[in-house]
Write a structure and sequence with these properties.
With 112 residues, the protein is mostly helical. The protein folds into 2 domains: 75 residues, no CATH class; 36 residues, no CATH class. Helices cover 75% and strands 0% of the residues. The chain has 6 helices and no strands. The longest helix is centred in the middle third of the chain and has 31 residues.
């Protein structure tokens, strides 16, 4: 993944990788090579904000594609697609941590 931009440049194709882990590593290298100047000019805050945006976009796109693929596999009508996406969005806005951590009931069940 880290070689994708280099290979793209070699082949004449403008490829870029937007991944949280790769970007975090790049920011760490930049911070180390530029020293304290990286922090004092506010670049670190901008970098961290960029990483947060990449994280949210990656998560949103991955979840949406997986959900659309599942709905297509079950041959749901298009009107149900919109309804299910709205329900998922409302649930996420109500309690976003449920999308990242399993419910306590299932976690205790899995231990038995």
């Amino acid at each position: 993944m880290g070689m994708t931009p280099v290979m793209g440049k070699f082949l004449g194709v403008p490829l870029d990788v937007r991944h949280v882990t790769l970007t975090t590593g790049t920011v760490a290298f930049a911070a180390e090579s530029l020293g304290r100047d990286y922090f004092y000019r506010g670049w670190m805050l901008e970098s961290l904000a960029g990483i947060a945006v990449i994280f949210v976009l990656n998560l949103t796109v991955s979840f949406t594609i997986a959900l659309l693929l599942a709905m297509r596999a079950y041959d749901l009508p298009a009107r149900d697609h919109v309804h299910l996406l709205n329900l998922c969005l409302k649930r996420f806005l109500k309690s976003p941590l449920e999308f990242f951590f399993p419910p306590k009931e299932e976690a205790s069940f899995a231990k038995h």
